[in-house]
Predict the structure.
Amino acid sequence: MARTIDPHRRPGPVSEMGLPEPVREVKPAPDRFRNSLGKYQVWRNELCGKCGKCVEICPRGVHVRPDGYVDFVRGLDWRCTAERCKENGTFCVEHCPNQALRIEETPIYKAVGDYRWTADLILSTWHMAETGTAPDGELNYQTGNSGGGFDRIDFVFPEDGPRTNPDEISTSIPLNRRGDNRPRITIDIPVYGGGMSFGSVSPHTILSKARAATAWNTFSCTGEGGYIERLFPYKDHMITQVATGLFGVREETIQMAPIVEFKYAQGAKPGLGGHLLGDKNTPAVAAMRGAVPGTSLFSPFPFHSVYSIEDHKKHVDWIKHINPRALVSAKVSTPIDVDMVAVGSYYAGAHIVHLDGSYGGTGAAPEIAKKNIAMPIEYAIPKVHRFLVEEGVRDVVTLIVSGGIRTAYDMAKAIALGADGVVIGTPEMVALGCIRCGRCESGKGCARGIATTDNEMVQKMTVEWGTQRLINMLTAWRAQLVDILSRFGMSDVKDLRGRTDLLRHMDYEEAIAKGENR
Amino acid sequence: MPAKYHIHTRQVPPRRKPIGKYGIIDWREDCSACHNCVKRECAYSVYNDERDRLRHTVEYVDYLYECKGCLCCVQSCTKGLLSWDVNPEYEKMGDEVWTPDIISSTWYQAETGNIPVSGAGYPGRFRGPGFDSILTDMSEIVRPTRDGIHGREYISTSVDIGRKLMKLSFDADGSLAGDCPPIIEIPIPIIFNAKPWQKLGDRIGEYVLDAAKELGTLAISDNPDNISHPAAIPHIATSEDDAAADGARIAEWDDAPDVIDRITRIKIANPNLIAVVKLPLGSSCAARAIKLARAGVGCIHAYADWHGYVPNDGADTQSGSVHISQAVRKLHLALIGEGIRDEVTLVASGGISLAEHVAKTVLCGADLVCVDIPLMIAMECRLCMNCRKELACPADINAVDRDYAVQRMVNLAGAWHSQLLEMMGAMGIREARRLRGEVGRAMFFDDLERECFGPVFGTRKAEVS
């Protein structure tokens, strides 16, 4: 039995030297709050005869009566899967001889979440982060309720085709397809962590992301706030970002990065620069950024040195000159001509073209920008994939997409639409306990200690716990991806790319899409 | 360097307890009064503020407005006594177009003058009807800006009201032949309607005019006492005489069979008058607008209902109502087809409830928009409709004082103006005049579905298009 990570343990100031090496192994990492949230609430009235039938029959351990106790202690209501129990004949309410139990949906379940991140998605991501497995109850862990995009796209699995042995399935993808003299970096799962700056999120969050990426042989990204020293032990798995504000961009950190990412735009605020409101700009953050503490920092838009692909090439050449071993990624958002942007980025020398769709996450953005500017990633992927195929360069570009990838199924659908892999941000935050209240932008930042720079709030989460939550979630995601590939009889995730024939859109006449893109 | 347009905003707190979205449900029974009470830990000090406010009773007390929904207290309470829910009063506000979120956001903007900024990604539906079926485009690398390299401070939101000459002609000596038609430049593509459909007192109309004046824009008014207000566009109903237009620089008439004759007559006496004719959007709107423009009417005010829809009178092939964005686009294209688009200014109104709707209406072809309901919401209206039923106004809007009312409206306009700058900056467009009809900087969901998903998934079902 793996050791449980104690979320409440206060390690004091975190020293990376004192942390164990991150290992790709699932360990239980339960909720760090006393009262976990779930779909149901269990009420026990005074008719309870203390017979213990409920304890005996509940498959989830909701009812708790410790050995030697006559009465029950507070139950673990969040584990309850009432509807599933009704189907399986293990519904405690029906089995209680005194009709002392009542189960209702909690008001919180109805209130938490939104169209994109439903309560089911939040709770199931928490489950994956705690256990390393997808929930087997009644939570929908595959789609949200936005009414479009990934939420209306389905895989069409063969009913009786041969399945691949999961142990023989590869989920690794190469990041350098150009065939140049730079390293042929591969990652073990087709997903890496998005850029989150020091300032937008806490150092514990940054370190947890970096350590989980290390364990999974993939990457995390510094964002545009500079490269904190505590990340140096994980430098082989860190992308460093050069964004329009050039905050914290230093030659020595570019030289140690295996991948350097130019952030031309961000999906949550396309056409706008980064926002860090003054309250979160602490002296430490300001020192890293070379700025004045307490002032709001707005990155400009666009790069004032880039107004053409030729200018972009100069940027790429600059990084390639400073670090002869680095791969270069161009992170762009999704305007109507995103296909031209993508192919131009490739011709300018980028190894990775990273598209960030308009429904992506952010630490702070004007709501008008989040909702209205640029196109959702679901549209951009097939558009760009098709254009790269027509240009004859599809196999020498690594197309990475982000901006609204919430689940392992979103990841698989993005790949089937034409991406090589995905970048995630919000799922990582949710795994760390984010509830999507959207208050990350100002004041002390996140009250749950994830997206904050306040020294006291940062201590609400330990690096060890955060690391494990992310390792567990990635484990669950990979297992789901492997299951999808297995059901299609595939042995490599690279074979899934562009297989739109395996998808159907529920709002389209044709039940099964044709594979023109294949 | 010319002075830059700036809207001076300042904090104006609400007079009434605002209706918040979320609230903590506190089951006080069984509280053990432990020393670890989570209420002390609230990162936003909501509970502490409650205590202070109760002691001093200086402000409203409301978890429902103050709760940020982090759920730390709910999840940490030793005995699990706290729960959380959406406020049913919040959900009752407005309707499906004027949603509670829009009302709440408008309150925030009127209070602070700030752009609503938040963390986390967009939480809403993938797409929606009306304005939510349009996205705006942005500039990136291969198409950095349309208007060249400039900072945001150089973006102009000014627009003109009035007829423009399609070409200039000159005398033999090189001087301009003939007079240029009168024109009024306003610094934002927004005018106000000082006669909103809610039944409010006359003072509210005055405050709307005062706010328009402070912003440098105009407001339509039908109150005879206010026609001399410097920001007023006198509105002349069909049954009224045209005296209000005497000496005015701009006036609005309801459309009527004799409106061209009336305007022609008044312009003989007042040649510098800009005549605005208000007519409903709909299938006959384009033909009528063309006729009016050819007759010398300088401005058309085309309106939809207050939800932004135009009843389908059967001439349109689409079923159901037509959204103002589509109707304006059709009208704009009809005027272009006649080669007279620049000869007439097009004001659109109806259902414009957010800053993004201004940009999208202009992208669809309007020169500017006219708003009224957001101004009432700025004064804490919650669209309960009590006023229409002769019941008491819960926000007691008739009792507001001038400073409060004007500044709240100015704040709202300031927030909208800042958001326009954000959108135009992203689009790389430096002039609101050049935003008009620029659908090259808009993306329509139906087009995206067809272009991006069509080759992959085939034909979209008619019932969901």
